Amino acid sequence: MSNVNLTDDIQVSQPSQQVPLWAKAIALLTLFNLTLGLFNISYVPLRDIYFRYLPALVRVYYPIKGIKPNIQTDNYVVTVNQLVAQLPEEVL
């Protein structure tokens, strides 16, 4: 019996280490979609935090979310800002 190695004639190609461009694009799209979904879920509970630190984002996202400003709240904010402007610095 001869020892014939049958694997000598078979060439095994190595899998390509480069990720195709479409796979990268799909991964980025999926990450963007996940981020947008998490932002959407957290928007109403964390709106005060977003309003304080990202006011431009809130102004853009209010119409998308369908949130309309309350007239009484807007009047209250204007009144408070006027009162704060009238107070001397040492009181604050």
Defining traits:
0% strand, mainly alpha, 4 helices, 92 residues
Describe the protein:
With 92 residues, this protein is an all-alpha fold. The chain has one domain. Helix content is 62%, strand content 0%. The chain contains four helices and no strands. Helix 2 crosses helix 3 (55-65). The longest helix has 23 residues, at 21-43. It starts with 20 loop residues before the first helix and ends in a 6-residue tail after the last helix. The model has no long low-confidence stretch (mean pLDDT 84).
What is the average of the pLDDT values?
84
Quaternary class: single chain
Distance between the termini: 99 Å
Overall helicity: 55-70%
| Radius of gyration, whole Å | 30 Å
Helical region count?
Answer: 4
* Succession of helices and strands: HHHH
Main pleated sheet: none
The total strand number stands at 0
Low-confidence stretches: none
Q: How many domains would you count in the coordinates? A: 1
* Strand residues, percent: under 5%
Structural class: mainly alpha
Shape: rod-shaped
